Amino acid sequence: MQLNSVKKIALTAILVFSTAAAVYADVIDDIKERGTIRVGVKADYKPYGFRDTDGSIVGIEPELAKDVADMLGVDIEYVPVVSSNRMQFLEQGKVDLMIATMTDKPDRRKVVSIVDPNYYSSGTNILALKSLGLKEWDDLKGKPVCGIQGAFYNKATSQNYGAKIVAFKGTAEAYAALKAGNCAAFVYDDSAIVAKTKDPEWADYEMPLATIDDAPWGLAVQLGEDKFHAMMSGIITAWHKSGRILDLETKWGVTNTPFAKAMNEK
Amino acid sequence: METFYEWFLVLYEDTGINLPFLYDDYDRGRILNGLWTTIKLSFTCVLFSVIIGMVGAWLQGSPWKLTRRVVNFYVQLFRNTPPLVQLYFFYFAVGILIPRVENGWGGTSPLIDSFGWAVISLSFFAGAFNVEIFRSGIEAVPKSTIEAAKALGFSRLQIYKDITLPLAIRVVIPSLNNNLVNLVKTTTLAYAIAVPELLYESNQIWSDNVNVTEMMLFLLFAYFILVGILVWAMNSWDRSLKIPGFGQ
User: What residues in B contact A83, CB-CB < 8 Å?
Assistant: First the structure.
């Protein structure tokens, strides 16, 4: 009997949810009416989305978002998000579109509408002191490893390699903790770590391991926004075809990634 | 037990209500660890903050001006700044200044880890309030009682320890109760410096499983119970200290 009432509640929730989605469908009209598109981007992930010295958000993903705004002929509003809240922001309609270095995962597809084709791809690696001489992922066993709250590879790193994950809210805290010696390494996206190792301030640090979990990134719209989804799908294809992604990588000092090259050739 | 756990997997598949910390071994380990850390952190902070409060209130009544000033400065500093800012300050700013020790993995780490800083910071934070709370209790003890003790030849410490404090405790329990309840709830802030307490572990779980609603409900329930236990303990203590004719 109890299970029945639980089922009823769940069913009601689903009903309410789907009606709400139907009522609010077609976010494109909303955006045009508002005159601004709100895009969730990272503000602490150089060079994909970070704060410039004047405080404005810049980077590869903000530029991609700007392309979308230009295409719709509206202004753009960047909403800084972090890994642990980006999907919730989109779900609650605080942003219309999310381009926030999110890895494409099946369970995430249940919550937000991830657009195909994937616009980017990266894997997982660590940033660690050269003097530690780490060589394999198993070397992390039992050591404290800094991470970001909400990153999917935290669980894998601790489950598969026995590392003790010490996860922080943002990258600034994680980098500070790594520098202070609170962790042996910082597990993060290889694309961001590569950029960090070029920073003279981080000259003593290296990216010593083989990249694992090379996985595509997905930008996402709200579930049920089919028209917007189709439009974004077309835009991504155009980005790949025209070499826009490759150009942006070059502009922001990232070596062209194999994924971006392959998609351009397709 | 396994059947009990598996029932929650069935619940997830049938209704979409996802409680991975019940059916997944790894997530269960995380939530238990989080619960244990929260209990440990709360208990240590409650203990230290009460000690700080008692000692601070005693020092506040010191005949030396300097001692009184130092205590007042401490109270102002910790009462007037947000606990999250204090945590960040201790962990990131003071943390890099303190001596470093060899860690087990070929480098050096600060002497105090994030749990240690959380205990220090939160104890001092709640301790500042406790000083004022104990002061209110001490001031409620009749002057004549203390004068009588002085006339009998008790020293200042003896008067405080054997006469003022025992009477003061009976007066302050309700407000102390308030502050300690707040302290237990404030331990959730420690997740900002990666202390693996209940909120931190729940955050990890909802990030991996995208079950924010369920985890929020669980958190609410868990803290309700945890704080409930504290309140129950404080109330029974209050009852056991009852003396006829004093403040009842």
Answer: 207
